[in-house]
Amino acid sequence: MKLFISKSPEDSLWLQSFCDERKWTLESKSLIDFSVIPFEVPKAAEIIFFSSKNGVRYFLEQAEIPANAQTACVGKETARVLRKSNIEPDFIGENSGDPVSVGKDFVKFSGEKHVFFPTSNASLHTIANLLPDSQKTIASIYETKLEAQKIAPADLYIFSSPSNVEGFFKENTIPEDARIIAWGLVTEKALMDRDFFPEYVLETGQKEELVEYLSN
């Protein structure tokens, strides 16, 4: 069986090992690239919410967490990246594949505190949109750019983000008999908008969930 995942080989070593054990073929290619956008942390920020691993990366390249600010993140994968920098999140979303659900929990956690959302220019701001304008500051701290390229046909396609879906369909399509997995509800919607319907949607956004599903 041949798999495609819209992640770089460096971000897919765990899946490569899984496929090697089963003698499956894996093509790992990210169809997006990133560049930094300068920003400043607002003085009003009491909580900083990270919606992705890249958000953490580009934030820490340019700034530090203010001494009195809390940190929050969309899910466990993003929390892992924060912990690698010795930052223990005060809030971690339970199901990052469903940002609306995470957002509802975060609204309860944040109370009336002012929240800073460092995001990509391509972000849909699903969680930030649940807070009133007076309680949030949103800043694009990195740019997501499409890197469209040809992908060889596969038996199973795993899409990790809506931007990767967009980049994929600029040069490719999915064979009729191929299987599709979406990394979260937002990625599922990007596929369904193009009349492609995933057989499975990752709820937690964790690689362990994907490996468990592929093992069955």
Structural class: alpha/beta
Summarize the helix and strand pattern as letters. EHEEEHEHEHEEEHEHEH
For the record, the count of structural domains works out to 2
What's the end-to-end separation, in Å?
Answer: 15 Å
Characterization of the model:
The protein has 216 residues and is an alpha/beta fold. It folds into two domains: 2-31 and 146-215, Rossmann fold (3-Layer(aba) Sandwich), CATH 3.40.50.10090; 40-144, Rossmann fold (3-Layer(aba) Sandwich). It has helices at 13-22, 53-62, 76-84, 99-110, 162-169, 185-192, 207-215; strands at 2-5, 25-28, 32-36, 47-50, 70-73, 91-92, 115-120, 136-146, 156-159, 179-182, 200-201. A six-stranded mixed beta sheet has the order 3-8-7-4-5-6, with helices on both faces. The protein has a five-stranded parallel beta sheet with strand order 2-1-9-10-11. The longest helix is centred in the middle third of the chain and has 12 residues, at 99-110. The chain starts with a strand and ends with a helix.
Lay out the secondary structure.
Elements: E1 2-5, H1 13-22, E2 25-28, E3 32-36, E4 47-50, H2 53-62, E5 70-73, H3 76-84, E6 91-92, H4 99-110, E7 115-120, E8 136-146, E9 156-159, H5 162-169, E10 179-182, H6 185-192, E11 200-201, H7 207-215
Parallel strand pairs: 1-2, 1-9, 4-5, 4-7, 5-6, 7-8, 9-10, 10-11
Antiparallel strand pairs: 3-8
Helix pairs in contact: 5-6
Provide a concise account of the structure shown.
It is built from seven helices and eleven strands. The protein has 216 residues and is of the alpha/beta class. α5 packs parallel to α6 (185-192).
